[in-house]
Amino acid sequence: MAQAEISNHLVTELRESFGKGAARKIRAVGKIPAVIYGHGTEPQHVTLPGHEVGLILRKSNQILELDIQGKIQLALVKDVQKDPVRQIIEHIDLIVVRKGEKVVIDVPIHLEGEAAPGTTVNQDANTISLEAEATNIPESVVVSIEGAEDGTSIHAKDLVLPKGSSLITDEDTLIVAISIAAEQDLGEEAEAPAAEEAAPAAE
C-alpha cells in the first residue's frame, strides 16, 4: 500500500537559538526542534508543532510538506531522536526531497494469512530496503504465507513489490521460512526401565 499524495502540511518556524537549553524551551511549549538538510542547501533549523508531528510519525517514512515563512519545502523524516525513558521526541532530522525524486528507504514487511497447521513461521527480516519515489513511498510490503507448507522459504527476490518500487536489499536475503515445530523428547521411554529397576522385587 502506498501513501496518499502529500497531506502532511505543517507550518514551521525558523529558529535562531540553539543548544540544550533552547531545545528544552522549545519542547516545553509543545514544539519539536528539527534540522532540514540535503541537495547542497544550507541546513535550516526549524521548530515543528509537536502534536501534529506525533500523529504523523505513527507511520514510518513520512514526507512532510513544510511551510517555511510562506515557502513550501518537501522533506523526508530521516531520524527521530527520543528520550530513552519518557519516549518524548527530542529532535528530528529531515532531508530535502523533490517531487519525482527517488529515495532509498527501509519499509516494514507485513505477513498475511496462516501457514499450514502444525508449522512454525520464522520471520528473518522485518524490513526491506527499496528505492521508491519520494512522494509515493509504500507503507509496507505484504507477504502472503496462507497455506505455506513445511520447507517453504521466501526470499527478497520472491516479494511482490509495490508499483514504482525497486529492490535494494540483496535478492537472496531470507525473509520467511516455514518449518515443522520440533517435538520435544520428554525421555519417558528412558525413564521407564529405571523405574522398573527401582521397584522392589515381588515375594
Automatic annotation (TrEMBL):
Keywords: Ribonucleoprotein, Ribosomal protein, RNA-binding, rRNA-binding. Residues 102-180 form the Large ribosomal subunit protein bL25 beta domain. Residues 12-94 form the Large ribosomal subunit protein bL25 L25 domain. It comes from the Bacteria. The keyword Mitochondrion does not apply. Pfam families: Ribosomal_L25p (PF01386), Ribosomal_TL5_C (PF14693). GO terms for cellular component: ribosome. Part of the 50S ribosomal subunit; part of the 5S rRNA/L5/L18/L25 subcomplex. Contacts the 5S rRNA. Binds to the 5S rRNA independently of L5 and L18. This is one of the proteins that binds to the 5S RNA in the ribosome where it forms part of the central protuberance. PANTHER family: RIBOSOMAL PROTEIN L25/GLN-TRNA SYNTHETASE, ANTI-CODON-BINDING DOMAIN-CONTAINING PROTEIN, RIBOSOMAL PROTEIN L25_GLN-TRNA SYNTHETASE, ANTI-CODON-BINDING DOMAIN-CONTAINING PROTEIN. Belongs to the bacterial ribosomal protein bL25 family. CTC subfamily. This is Large ribosomal subunit protein bL25. It comes from Conyzicola nivalis. The lineage of its organism: Bacteria, Bacillati, Actinomycetota, Actinomycetes, Micrococcales. The gene is rplY.
